[in-house]
Amino acid sequence: MRYGYFDDQNREYVITQPDTPLPWINYLGMADYFGLISNTAGGYSFFQDARLRRLTRYRYNNVPSDIGGRYLYLRDDKDGTFWSPTWMPTRHPLEDYSCRHGMGYSRIGSTFHGIRADINYFVPPNETLEIWDLTLENQSEETLTLSAFSCVEFCLWDALDDATNFQRNLSIGELEVEGSVIYHKTEYRERRNHFAYFACSEPLAGYETQRESFLGPYRGWESPQVVESGHSTNSLKTGWSPVGVHHLRFILAPGEKKQVIFLLGYHENLPDEKFSPRGSQTINKRTVEPVIQAYLDPQRVDEAFQALLGVWDELLGVIQVHTPDEHVDRMVNIWNAYQCMVTFNLSRSASYFESGIGRGMGFRDSNQDLLGFIHMVPDRARQRILDLASTQLENGGAFHQYQPLTKRGNDSIGSNFNDDPLWLVLSAAAYLKETADWDILKERIPFENKPGTEASLLDHLRRSIQYVIDNIGPHGLPLIGRADWNDCLNLNTFSHNPGESFQTTTNRDGKVAESVVIAALFTMAAMELSQITHRLGMREESERLSGLADGMAATTRRYGWDGGWFLRAYDHFGQPVGSKSCEEGKIYIEPQGLCTMAGIGVSERLAETALKAVERHLATEHGIMLLQPPYQSYHLHLGEISSYPPGFKENASVFCHTNPWIMIAEAMLGAGDRALDYYLRINPSYREIMSDLHRCEPYVYAQMIAGKDSDAFGEAKNAWLTGTAAWNFVAITQWILGIRPDFDGLRLEPVLPDKWEGFSVVRKFRGSTYHITVRRKGRGNELTLMVNGQPVEGTLIPVTEAEQVDVEVTIG
Ligand code: GLC
Ligand code: GLC
Fold first, then answer.
1. 5 falls in which pLDDT band (50, 70, 90)?
2. Sign of the torsion angle spanned by Cα atoms 412, 358, 158, 409
3. Closest alpha carbon to 239 in 184, 157, 159
4. Rg of the chain's alpha carbons, rounded to an integer?
């Protein structure tokens, strides 16, 4: 069953029924100002940091769900009928409801009571405000006398404090109303020099500034007293829960249209220019007023929206594919790329599953996210790499997370996730392959943000490698530390106490438990750095690094192979994890994918055997599970992984992030059919027809799909902010379609599924536009390349000055 459809032409998903299984959301904003918006206008907005600068309130885990949003109420003042054109919060049945989630905007429209309402929500590029562009049309035969109410609930900026410190917060709310603008200035009197505003293009018939006076006692958002009565209190209040409500009145003749623009924004003043007149407590509006005036102009709003569309034309234009499969095209050309940008912007901070309060930017997560957006925003990727490297520790290890506002490592989580530093090498290598910006390696950046410790990025990468060499276990495999990629495989935690963090509790000295996953990552990272140093003319170092990679690969074949597949780890007692000798958790997905990707055991055909085992033991119609059989009870020596009920999360769900590793591995071994098959099983668009089972948005990946051992097999959870986005993009574009940036040019190694006759791609790369056509001649994987009509040896297209490059590839 579906709840809408894809409109690929307009790059939109159109939801046609408001009561989707879960709120289906979208993101507004690309730089400093962000908003989350659901298909019924729920969600909230913030400036830069969803915890410290949250503008509006949102109630996670509420009943009914998705409360708090960008609400509008319409009211027929003759008969008192009122409703929300976005369905929530009044939930009146609407005619023609639709929500079009697009690239950085959401357009919600409906008809009710003879009134057509359309609202376009978006953030203009480079502004710290959002626009609600509302158009009303009287489609009835009568002249209507209408009231419209807008409503946002301001929150107190630090979202954690807002949810906990009521004894103070309920007494500090302050607002100002000037003309049609409601200013929220809680704490502005003291240490803040920023405030929020909610403006409107129309003169006001009334306004509200406090939740209780708007809703009335014991009432919810579905029937505010002011809306029901049609009379505002027009009172400026202090304390309790500040809101911004504009009350507008107008008369609409049959067929008449009316446009109203609302602006919700964030603004900062210089510390010594906060008040006007000086010495008063009134906000100085000198710098904010011009911004407000500008965007209340419909023409400016239109231009801003066109500019937003233009930004996305550019971003998505870097790679556009035309394949025989609409699910591939739609995800690659539109939604997967879009989701990669969202994970770039938000990391794991704010979604409908991440509260915006908990996590900062993950070190390993952010490095992997980079893989999905370097081609779209190389400059910002560069900065992100340098920011990440600046939080690296002097011993080469990494803070597990850093805070976006301060860009500093997060002490409360600390380090010792021993895979972390390796991801920096992999993301830096990916950046070099896309951009050839070798100068980045010379950038001098500190360790732990400490001035005076600056070293080149190249030195940082060396230390990442050294960190692993300095932390080798009894079998010669890397020590796991608190965890590796799998945050929940905690081999040194041994926690008995409820509520203790699996990730930061460490009851064992960590000198025994080893990780095959880190071995694979090390092998990959050492090979990449070997390639990099080779190109820098450092022959000895390059050879040393490739020697290290070979050594680790050999150790992995020797101690990391279980007979039928790669082992996952050795635990604190030196016993294997992910082995046929285990009763539960006999086989894990991660090492099968990552070892193959590292080339470990490929020529010995171990990789092939491992992938067969994946197909046999882990693959389901809803994707490939993380492990089998699931842990049925809590295992003290394995940690959080066994805390989840079977089939959920790391305990044997289809943890989507890992699936593309298998797709890549299959493609590397030439199995195009299987690679694409796995790709489609978790492709959200492919799963759209089972939206009632899948439940999350059909246009973006979710972190997990419940595994076969759960009671919800096939149900997705934790949509949007997941490494799944970047890795699937890499798997389909670079390995299955085989268009792969490499140090010395663009590599073309498609691995076609059997039934595909070919495909075409336009790819912008280092200043040239490549028009690539791939055709199947026979059933094999042999490739022949013609570049601008000339045959080329091998699979690498050397970099050129030419603007356009025509490439023809035949496969047979
Ligand atoms: C979550 C984390 C990521 C981790 C994964 C597996 O997605 O964000 O860092 O690798 O879970 O535990
Ligand atoms: C929990 C989650 C895991 C995530 C981690 C982040 O352990 O299960 O997926 O990586 O939290 O801290």
1. very high
2. positive
3. 184
4. 28
Candidates 657, 659, 703: which one to mutate for ligand 1, based on the most atoms within 8 Å of Cβ?
A: 657
Residues annotated as catalytic (active site), given as ranges:
487
Place of tokens 């390796």: 422
Rounded to whole angstroms, how far apart are CA atoms 257 and 740? 51
Of the candidates 368, 501, 480, the one whose C-alpha atom is nearest the C-alpha of residue 417 is 480
The CA distance from 322 to 329, in Å, is 6
Q: Tell me: the pLDDT tens digits for 736-747? A: 999 999 999 999
Q: State the helix-helix crossing angle for 420-435 and 516-535, rounded to 10 degrees.
A: 40
Contact predicate 432/532, CB 8 Å: yes
Contacts of 469 (CB under 8 A, 6+ apart): 548
Token pair 């059989």 is found at 629
Closest ligand to 642 CA?
Answer: 2
Above 80 in pLDDT, residue 359?
no
Per residue in 110-122, pLDDT (tens digit) is 999 999 999 999 9
CA atoms within 13 A on the CB side of 524: 24
Ligand closest to Cα of 720 equals 1
Give the separation between CA 753 and CA 233, rounded to whole angstroms. Answer: 66
How far is 124 from 311, CA to CA, in rounded Å? Answer: 10
Atom of ligand 2 nearest to the CA of 703: 9
Cα-based distances in Å from 463 to 176, 223, 254, 368: 54, 60, 72, 19
Pocket flag, ligand 1, residue 640 (CB < 6 Å): no
Are the beta carbons of 292 and 265 closer than 8 angstroms? yes
Within 397-442, strands assigned E span 401-403, 408-409
724 C-alpha vs ligand 1 centroid, how far in Å? Answer: 10
Q: Please, what sign has the CA dihedral across residues 166, 169, 171, 176?
A: negative
Task: For residues 13 and 704, give the distance between their C-alpha atoms in angstroms, rounded to a whole number.
Answer: 21
Number of C-beta neighbours around residue 408 at 10 A? 16
Ligand 1 pocket check for 12: Cβ under 6 Å: no
CA atoms within 13 A on the CB side of 111: 8
Q: Can you give the pLDDT at residue 293?
A: 98
- Alpha-carbon gap, residue 144 to 252, rounded angstroms: 5
The number of the ligand 1 atom at minimal distance from the alpha carbon of 362 is 9
Return d(Cα 568, Cα 485) in angstroms, integer: 11
CA distance 209 to 486: 47
Contact 348, 354 (CB under 8 A): yes
For ligand 2, pick from 420, 487, 640 the residue to mutate: most ligand atoms within 8 Å of CB: 487
Backbone dihedral angles phi then psi of residue 718, each to the nearest 5 degrees: 60, 60
**Given pLDDT bands bounded at 50, 70 and 90, which one contains residue 96?**
very high
The three-point CA angle 43-45-50 to 5° equals 105
Whole-angstrom Cα distance, residue 490 to residue 289? 54
Query: How many whole angstroms separate alpha carbon 328 and alpha carbon 367?
Result: 25
Q: Which residues of 141-179 are buried (b: 16+ CB within 10 A; e: fewer)?
A: eeebebbbbbbbbbbbbbbebbbeeeeebeebbbbbbee
Looking at the whole model, is its pTM more than 0.90? yes
CB 487 near ligand 1, within 6 Å: yes
Ligand 2 nearest atom to the CA of residue 488, by list position: 7
Q: Give CA–CA dist 675/736, Å, rounded.
A: 7
Distances (CA, A) of 177 to 200, 234, 246, 290, 615: 12, 10, 10, 17, 64
- Whether the ω angle into residue 93 lies within 30 degrees of 0, i.e. cis, is no
Q: How many CB atoms lie within 10 A of CB 605?
A: 10
Under DSSP, is residue 689 helix (H, G, I), strand (E, B) or coil?
helix
